[in-house]
């Protein structure tokens, strides 16, 4: 049984469009256990949930935006593959613009995003990837939230697919699910590649 873990982005949930599409796709595959977690907004609390989830290490982790950052943190710790979609690179620099109170749509809890949480994110960030070939990176140049060029630079040596246009939600995501599943479920190493 192969285990796939899905991590949503900031102010999102396991009920997001991408999470639901991903779960539906993997549910149709044999011998796959898929889990989409609902993560707290504070980094330390999110990491506690994740550390419990990886007691049984996943085959691969899929993460979107901030979930892509957390997927990278976990993949570096346990040595599994990861597919990241419009991932946040150095999210402490971006989320510092979004301090304030939020309500989680599934957990139905309120969270206060504070400056100290940016320090927690910065401390989590891997300075470099140990084995970039373990990553599939899906980027759209029209991302209005994150600068895709930061991800191109950070994930050097990974399999990077850069799509012209689109937005932060990653337009047409569902069409990429067969490729994502193939990457996540096949025990193969992939070389450096950037496609447009």
From TrEMBL:
Gene3D superfamilies from the UniProt entry: alpha/beta hydrolase
What the entry lists under InterPro entries is as follows: AB_hydrolase_fold (IPR029058), UPF0227/Esterase_YqiA (IPR008886)
The cross-references to PANTHER family, in alphabetical order and at most eight, read: ESTERASE YQIA, ESTERASE YQIA-RELATED
Q: What is this protein called?
A: Esterase
Superkingdom, taxonomy of origin: Bacteria
């Amino acid at each position: 049984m192969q285990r796939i873990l899905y991590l949503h982005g900031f102010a999102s949930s396991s009920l997001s469009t991408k999470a639901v599409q991903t779960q539906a796709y993997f549910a149709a595959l044999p011998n796959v256990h898929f889990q989409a977690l609902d993560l707290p907004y504070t980094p330390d609390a999110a990491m506690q949930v994740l550390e419990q989830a990886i007691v049984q290490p996943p085959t691969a982790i899929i993460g979107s935006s901030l979930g892509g950052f957390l997927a990278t943190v976990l993949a570096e710790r346990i040595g599994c593959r990861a597919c990241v979609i419009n991932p946040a690179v150095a999210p402490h620099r971006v989320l510092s613009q979004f301090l304030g109170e939020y309500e989680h749509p599934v957990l139905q809890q309120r969270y206060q995003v504070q400056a100290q949480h940016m320090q927690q994110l910065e401390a989590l960030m891997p300075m470099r990837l140990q084995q970039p070939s373990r990553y599939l990176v899906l980027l759209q140049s029209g991302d209005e939230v994150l600068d895709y060029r930061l991800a191109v630079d950070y994930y050097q040596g990974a399999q990077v697919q850069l799509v012209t246009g689109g937005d932060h939600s990653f337009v047409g995501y569902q069409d990429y699910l067969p490729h994502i599943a193939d990457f996540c479920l096949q025990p193969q190493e992939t070389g450096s590649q950037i496609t447009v």
